[in-house]
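Inputs:
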Amino acid sequence: MSFRAYLISQEIEFGEISKEALLEKSHPIDSTANAAYLYKYRRTYFTHDNRGGFSLVSEIHNRIKIYNKEGLNWGNFKILLYKQAGIKERISGIRGYTFNESNNKIKKTKLKRVNRFTEEVNDNVIAQKIAFADIKEGSIIDFKYVVNSPFVSKIDDIIFQYNIPVNKLDITIETPEYFIFKKRSKGYYSITPTERKKQEIYNIRLKSKAGGSFLTPMQTTTDSKIIYTKKIEQYKAKNIVAIADSEPYISNINNYRGGVKYELSYIKYPNSNPKFYTTTWEDISKKINLIDDFGGELKRNRYFKDDLPSILADAKTDIEKTISIFNFIKNKITWNKKSGKFTDKGVKKAYKTGSGNTADINLALTAMLRKAGLKANPVLVSTRDHEIPLFPTLNGFNYVISIVEFKNGGTVLLDATEPYSLPNILPARTINWSGRKIMENGKSEWISLTPRKVSSENSLVKLKIDTDGTATGFTRLKYDRLFALTKRKEYNNTSEEDILSELEEEYEIEIDDHKILNQNSLGKPLSEMFKFSTDNLVEEINDKLYINPLLFLTDKENPFKLDDRKFPIDFATPWKETSSISIEIPEGYEVSSIPEQMAIGISDNIGFFKFKPVNKGTSIQINAVLEFDKAMIPPSFYQEVKAFYTQVIAKQNEKIVLSKIQ
Amino acid sequence: MKKFFLCVALIFIFFSNIKAQEDLHKYATIPDNLLKNANAVVRSSLIEINIEDIDRMVIRKKRIITVLNELGNREIDTYAYYDNDSKISKLSVVVYNESGKQIAKYSKGKFKDISAVDNGTLYSDSRVKFLNYTPTAYPYTLVFESEYKTSSTGFIPSWLPISSYYLSVEKSEYKLYNPKKLEIRTKENNFDNYSIEKTPNNLGFKYVLSTKPAIKYEERSIPFSDFTPNLMVALNNFVLKNIEGKAKNWTEFGKWMYTKLLNDKTELSQKTISKAKELVKDIENPIEKAKILYKFMQNRTRYISVQVGIGGWQPIPADEVDKMGYGDCKGLTNYTKALFDAVGIESYWTLVYAKTRKDIDSEFSSLQGNHMILNIPNNGQDLWLECTSQQAPFGFLGDFTDNRNVLVITPEGGIIKKTPSYNNATNLQTTKANITLSKEGHVNATVEIISKGTQYDEKYTLVSKPEADLKKYYTTNRWSYNNNLSLKDIVLQNDKSQIYFKEKMHVTLNNYASLNENELLLRVNVFNKNTLIPKRYRTRNLPLRIYRGYKDVDNYTITVPNEYHVKQLPTKKEIKTKFGSYTRELIKLDDTNIQYKKTILIKDGTYPKEDYKLYRKFRKQIAKQENLRIAVYKN
């Protein structure tokens, strides 16, 4: 008994707090914290009823200190409970106190029924909302509850890092020997758990005939004792720093939050065959191939049978066939903006009605490509707003695209949900690390989703300066690959007038004769051209003219302003901006000075900047390239990238000086 | 008998429309003038309201809309709200393709049902059924029909025949049946300039608007609701969540709210009353007392919104707020009033439209407003308290509720009053700086900024931010146009009694001035660059409105390094327009010291559309001055 008590008892007693903690005015380590978890406790274990059914229990105890008024929202809680097909998670044992200092004494306010609200969010989710009473600056909240879940395969992710610091963390996961989970750490903070084993005994009433298998209710009733071993993993840590989400070029802060994910790989009861959930990639691909909403859909091909010959009528090579089918599906089925690795309506219905989710579209695409004799396979993807799949997992993916492998060894990735996508040019949402190719034979492999080729923005500007200091000129901007896709999407949804206004605002110029070329000719770069005039580009100070060499394309601000960064810089794609500027020297002026040329780089070939102005007598020609050859830059390079940008900005802001010919 | 007659009438109307409606499913039948600037066209919209009795109302809607492009999808509005005392009886969507062929049909069961709790609310019994339709091609036509019954007649749907920009209207109809001849009032707003037909009959009335081409959005203009028609309808005697109400005029409405919803909610425990009395025991002046109790309230409450049943209109009892330490605007206002009552300070609940400026209609009494504040009559010198902020100074409303008609609820009835306005020079920011330039081009400066009025409102919450957040705010937000900026010795002072906010700090800007052979070039307005240029409109159709005026005064001294000297400086610039004024002056104090003085005054107001160009020109001239740079030369 005492052993058991040792195991489950918490080191911190619920409902008991110290006066020092209550009087604390700011967090001793992180003075910026609005609130802190003084204690974050969770114990997740399996329990069983006397018929032998297991369910999952999580005991939670949170103790939160609120330091200032910005932190008052930490007095509100929302606990989501899932339900599915009549079975649901239940919350019980909700207890809570708010502690405040009052006349040098501890004042304790109990959480009451009136502070709780139950909201049916939708068919699958119930939210239990709780607003603690008497919350003010300095308050401490003690809060515990138990969630009972029939969904034994789903142990909630362990999260170590929050937007506020955690002073003391104690999380235990206890799994019976019958349930085998795989676990994997994620993010930029990890804790190594201590592990121990313990024997557990429970009484089970089996209604069974002799020979009845374990846990299968049968006719006669026998009571028996079952002894099994459970594995106890305990994660303990002190002073975990808060994680902040406010820097540029972060895809999804949850990818960087430290934690551990558990995924059920198999259940094996004594004397029975194991029931596999997921263990290896092979199991996953085999399993998903057997699921009707995935593998089943790939086998259907009657619904498009009649259309296929005409689609392929003019296509001779494999590449032509691929493009033809890809374009056909893009036009045939519109994406309903829902992500999914499993079909929503089913490929057949989606094909017929003309709309569907990602799986409806891209599985139909894959099936059609296969039918046309191409080596096509689905690729499971986790989108940028989803987390990164860390280990053989199905839950880790929320999207599916398609890959075609050609006989010559070339491959293309296809996502037909996005009208402006092209083979190998995926929309940014899908560019998140790697995807998993699922083959018919149950094999699978990683496929890198990050574009290898650089997306570029190419600008050409010709400028003429008038005697009154205004400047007029002509511009052509060209975008390719991901940049073109993003621009096309944006322009499709924007009126001509708004496009002009936005350009005018961004560049501080006035635009005439604006033209967009190749908005729908996806094979060509998107380009736009316009004439402009402005009196902002040329500055006259004491008879001299000062001009930024890159004119309105000058980068004025360093995007990286913070002193320190803990996460990678994620551009989604390698990219480059090239500018080619020509400035006509006005009558009566000569070049007094032009900035010197410059070429700098970031180590490991991450990126470079080249800048070269040339005085050609009647005009000045400036060529500049800013290029990043890596889509993702590790945090160890942050200082270098920031310093690099400082130099780039400084160089771009050096002036061309023209003076009057005496 | 009457009811039977009504049914027949409804059926007749329905049949008479059938033939015409088939045509409305086709894109080709849209008149050309309705296609211009439109993302969608309302082919026909019908709202039919049948007030069966004071506590029974049926609302039937049928809307046929042709969506022309992706942006038009947001106009399909395929949702219906309901709560505990209303029931949706009918809900359907039918979709037709360009040529009018039916391509999809959705019945009530296909609609998703979710809780309609917005982000600011913890709990509400309001729910919504909605349908997410994914169009497969444009244009398409969607017919949305809904019908719901409610036992609350406090809100009779208004008629807003033109519901948004870029939306054309072929026909919009509003029919109201009032078989019991209940006393009803209507008010027509902005009906001039629109072709609207009104037909009264012995059962009620009907309004029809036809053929209105889409209106293009233009920024810096008057609100959409100020120039598009809307019809307000209200019963003199109504039911709201099972409570009978009266609203013949504001006096009656106010009396009703006072007696039925508010008056019995101000009780406090003896303990809290004693506490309140104790807090103000040595103070004579009632306003000083109120200040202390307001602060007491601010320190022990937080804003949480819970709206159930009549709770949208009735505060939770003061005693409960006292126990739990939270409440919504009504709960916190009422709690503050209860504290004031306990010590004999006169104060009244006040209904207001918060955030976007909107008046409570002084001539039309009905359930209006979306927020509650507290009024202290103070012998004719009205004071107003915002009770949902833990930080607002006593008597400060800011742009959340300033300058608008509000309804003060007194035992004698409702009274319309106007909240004070923060206009033009009241919203003053003065910036003083001593700026020293080094020979490497770095800047070292001490800055002091004092903000008042709405400029105070924008900044005062900074005082509770930790230093790291402040540094980030100044570098990435307020002064993001300055690269390589770092700060130290930040001192912030929120003077709640004089209501001003003071920021003081030391700033360094590395490589601020660019080095060019023998000269240093620097932008003179280091700390308050105002380069806003309104969007260019090739043709402007709507009036210009400047919503909030302000005044900024900048005064810097700039010291250049000893090795350098100042030559000639740009001459003084003065611009005066009806929109405001601008002056910028640079004075050479000696060879190494310059004084920079700038004043900008922007006046609020509404101006005809022709003035937009002039205002833009004014702001362009200012922007140019704000980017002004000077050169200093090596000796």
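Chain A has eleven helices and 37 strands. Flag for discussion at group meeting.
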